[in-house]
Design goal:
Length: 564
């Protein structure tokens, strides 16, 4: 045949688009990956129109100037890959420079973008791959890509689309997969102008899972954690017996990229064993991290699959992590919405009783910012709003929060005593004390002792006293609780103590300490435990009551008949 011809650019683009842009969800996926590569920390996806053919993705990432926008629309134009060698260690989601020209070839596309710090935004409109307009415009920093009339010029492709319900399912899945891969980025998904979900930027995968699937589901998922031969595995999966009931999909992430992988599925099924019903997959997210050089991301046209250099190692790591997690089937240490209840500026308020009897804290609540070797302990929660439950190398530890806090406060004050000077902090508004005549007289006698501890009181008028300064080392909560109760109760103090300052210190410690029933919250509880660890004598409170009970692992094993 002598009819060999080079295909026109238009046909080439449509063929290429066929591989990358299969359905509306493919567009969503590519645009989200571009926003993530642009380091956006807020991304909004909005879907509408017949056949879900109108797709807009807005981000607050690094944006493009006019020149970049035009270049991005050229095939094989990418800012992410500069050499063949770099292809062996890809750390961005995109790298081929195919998505935007492919999408542009089969839709009406508009890109509006403004790099941070630039005065103006630029807009470029393309129809079926042909540039219609470029113009300056006003727009916030970041990028918005709007796709309309998807597949308007490829009727064959349009015919292959499924019902809106099915296509929507695919879209939702793509957004969720990216949201799980990037917990630090806020995501909003809207359909026909209505918000489907809005996920705030999260501190980690656990919180993201919680926000995405809700407390009830999240609590039933089993946390995974493990590392083996350079493959780190984390995530949250339903237990095999819950999997048939909880069908919210399984997401596999490799270095943050959502992929499909039969080998991993196989390992997962095997590790779950016969407890997993046939044909059922667990729901949840399985996240793997390994050296990018160990992963070939360039084997699938839409980058939905990857190839591992050592697939057996990856499978072994997955299998080990899943078996370990199921073997333990430990409590799902999920936060009970505490982040919301406990905004930073409220943590300083006097402790608040919670209605619940017990509270589970996030698994890493002690590790975060823990001093010294505090990380060896894990704060599991608060029971009866009175006892902290901690897991440590020596065993399971129950802490009486009031006794513990008393000890901590006592030592804080004792250090002031030894230094013979308390650094005090002047109060913006002096706190008036309601004192009877007797109390006022008693207080007057204590002024120098109090001052040496950093507590300043002043007489404003006859018999009318107020606190004007408090020790700088107290937290705000401790200060308020001191101010409210302690000094006003001076009448009940021992009349002529041998060591008045020590008496004051014990009183203050007791008064300012958390009471049983006070809500310490994870941060407060973690701080308390760390403070107690560094106490000189943390085992009992100043009155001699124990601050904690330890059940050694050996003791527990014996009691449970696991060893003789
Ligand atoms: P790839 O992602 O493979 O590089 P694309 O066609 O998806 O190819 O995008 C081409 C280029 O356009 C990217 O390399 C990037 O420089 C730029 N780009 C695309 N989307 C965005 C965005 N949302 N923000 C900033 N730059 C973008
Ligand atoms: Mg891309």
């Amino acid at each position: 045949m002598s009819g060999i011809r080079i295909l026109s650019e238009e046909v080439i683009n449509k063929i290429a688009a066929g591989e990358v842009v299969e359905r509306p969800a493919s567009v969503v996926k590519e645009l989200l990956e571009n926003s993530l590569d642009a380091e956006a920390f807020r991304i909004e996806v909005s879907i509408s129109g017949p056949g879900l053919s109108e797709i807009a993705v807005s981000d607050n990432g690094r944006g493009m100037d006019r020149h970049d926008i035009l270049l991005a629309l050229e095939r094989h134009a990418t800012s992410k890959l500069s050499s063949y060698e770099a292809l062996s260690r890809v750390e961005t989601m995109g790298f081929r420079g195919e998505a935007l020209p492919s999408i542009a070839g089969v839709s009406l596309l508009e890109i509006v973008s403004r790099p941070p710090g630039e005065l103006a935004a630029h807009r470029v409109r393309v129809s079926g791959g042909r540039i219609l307009e470029t113009a300056d415009c006003g727009a916030p920093e970041g990028t918005t890509v709007r796709v309309r009339k998807l597949f308007f010029n490829t009727p064959a492709r349009r015919k292959f689309l499924k019902s809106d319900r099915v296509e929507w399912g695919h879209i939702e899945r793509e957004v969720i997969a990216r949201a799980l891969g990037a917990p630090g980025t806020a995501f909003l998904l809207a359909r026909a102008g209505e918000t489907v979900f809005s996920l705030p930027a999260a501190s980690g995968l656990q919180r993201r899972v919680w926000d995405l699937w809700g407390k009830e589901t999240a609590e039933t998922l089993v946390p995974l954690a493990g590392e083996r031969e350079g493959v780190a595995v984390s995530g949250f999966l339903s237990a095999p017996e819950d999997s048939a009931r909880l069908r919210k999909g399984l997401y596999i992430l490799v270095n943050g990229r959502a992929v499909q992988d039969r080998g991993i599925l196989f390992a997962l099924r095997e590790a779950m064993g016969p407890r997993l019903p046939r044909g059922v997959l667990p729901m949840g997210v399985l996240a793997l991290r390994l050296d990018p050089a160990e992963v070939d991301v360039n084997i699938h046209p839409a980058k939905r699959e990857v190839a591992f250099r050592a697939p057996a190692r990856v499978k072994a790591a997955v299998s080990a992590a899943v078996s370990a997690a199921l073997g333990k089937k430990s409590f799902p240490a999920f936060p009970l919405g505490w982040e919301d209840r406990l905004s930073p500026d409220r943590t300083g308020l006097p402790g608040r009783a919670v209605s619940g009897q017990g509270e589970l804290f996030p698994a890493d609540s002690l590790r975060e910012g823990a001093a010294g070797d505090g990380w060896r302990y894990r704060l599991l929660g608060q029971a009866r709003s009175s006892y902290l439950v901690v897991e440590g190398p020596e065993g399971l530890i129950l802490i009486d929060q009031h006794a513990a806090h008393e000890r901590v406060m006592f030592e804080k004050f004792s250090r002031l005593l030894e230094a013979d000077r308390g650094e005090s902090q002047q109060l913006l508004a002096p706190i008036p004390l309601e004192l009877g005549a007797l109390e006022a007289a008693l207080l007057a006698g204590q002024v120098p002792h109090l001052a040496s501890l950093g507590i300043e009181v002043e007489e404003f008028g006859p018999g009318s006293w107020a606190i004007t300064a408090l020790p700088a080392l107290l937290t705000r909560r401790e200060k308020e609780s001191l101010a409210a109760e302690t000094l006003a109760g001076i009448g009940e103090w021992e009349k002529s103590p041998a060591d008045p300052r020590r008496e004051i210190v014990i009183r203050l410690a007791c008064q300012a300490a958390l009471k049983a029933g006070d809500y310490a919250g994870p941060e407060g509880a973690a701080r308390l435990w760390r403070d107690l660890l560094v106490c000189r004598d943390g085992s009992c409170c100043p009155h001699g009551r124990p601050t904690r009970l330890t059940f050694s692992w050996e003791e527990l094993e014996k009691k449970f008949g696991r060893r003789g």
